[in-house]
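Purpose: get a first structural picture of the assembly so the mutagenesis plan has something to point at.
Setup: two entries, given in the order below. No constraints added.
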Amino acid sequence: MSTIEVNKITPVSGGTAIQVGESGDTITVPSGATITNSGTANNFTSYRPNAQALIINGNMDVWQRGTATVTTTGDYVGVDRFKISEDTDGSYSTQRHTMSNAEFTTTGFGYALQADCTGTDASIGATQSAEITQKIEAQNLQLLQYGTSNAKNLTLAFWVKSSKTGTYCVAIRKRDTTSYDIPIEYSISSADTWEKKVINISPTAGSTSFITSSAGAITNDNGDGLHVTFCLAIGSNYHGTNNTWVAATKLSTSNQVNWMDSTDNNFYLTGVQLEVGEYTSATIPPFQHETYAENLRRCMRYFYILGGVTDTQKRLSVNFCNPSNRNQTLGLHHLPVPMRTAQTVTIPSASDFSVTHLGGSNACNSVTINNDGALPNNAMLSCLAITGANASTDCVMLEMTYASTNTMEVSAEL
Amino acid sequence: MIISTVKKSNDLNGKFMCYVINYSDDDRISCVPHNEANTDYQNILQWVADGNTIAEAD
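Result (structure tokens, whole complex):
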């Protein structure tokens, strides 16, 4: 290998660019060497300002409510953190899709959210829609600097596959202070083929100053900050202009396909990532893979479920008896992580509960949840009417009886 | 889940604790705190705005 020793390389007279090597060549910087950027370095992968992904469960790994097929009722029904909405004359279901080896090879993800049209609506009403949304907590979005002249560009990337090709839309919806929406088109070019989409979201798209003015701010709290919405079918009242911020509910453009028009239609989504900065498909940083445990813990801030098909008894809490009335108990159920806000607790009927003690087990005729939401990391549960032969003896543990449908759900969803 | 009834619930000392929701399409019950950041409480407010009434605690 020959060595050239120079202090400066400049373009030929009249030129401004220098090329090193040819396409396909590898330019090596030796270990220990440093490239110093005193100007502008384009298209290098830059550091992320956020330690954790802005989109939670973007790899569709966590399904606390269950992975089986569920026909949506316009709520959180299967996959964590993604709200499945449907308000058309048709219907669709969602379930977890396990990637084949070929799909895993292509995308790098083990699971996807699968949606299947199960009832058609050939003509979507003006105020009807079907879409999939992740809502992001406001205080996790302060690095966007929305509401200032330094508002950041965003890049949304995701893997998508559908049997129905055509123009689809994603909408970014800024919810705090004044609500602003921006619908952005993308194309699914090949049927039944995984495609990676990379979409830039400029805070000034459409030459507006909505996001860079004070009304564009996202309040630094635990409220609803930003929606990332994947459109399936959108009524005309919610049609806006492509890549243009607007102070109205605009989820898509008029070019959005009507995915609800055939029960042959399916839609797969995974690898959803939202990055601060402007990237292309060549420069988008890799997906931030978390451990399953870390992903689950982040999901549990918004939803937590106790129960399932494998527990023979679901022990809720160690309870204490009311000294003046031993037919009553009171206990705390500690939650895995503090919830986003005062939480809703949902339980089966009282007949599914019992109190277990050293002498056996007694039925609960009345179970209440002492849940004022004041404590974000526990729920207080009481059995106020213990019945049976040992009702007046020690009462120790509150349990739900075995049934796959018997669950305690704790929700603080956005 | 579709709300059927909403009733206030007090703790053992008679202090308001939460709203207990019964559903028309689900046998379970929910205990919803009085907190505007809770989306289930927002749904109760909408249910009331639609002309329904919250029952007082026993």
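The helical segments of chain A are 101-107, 292-300.
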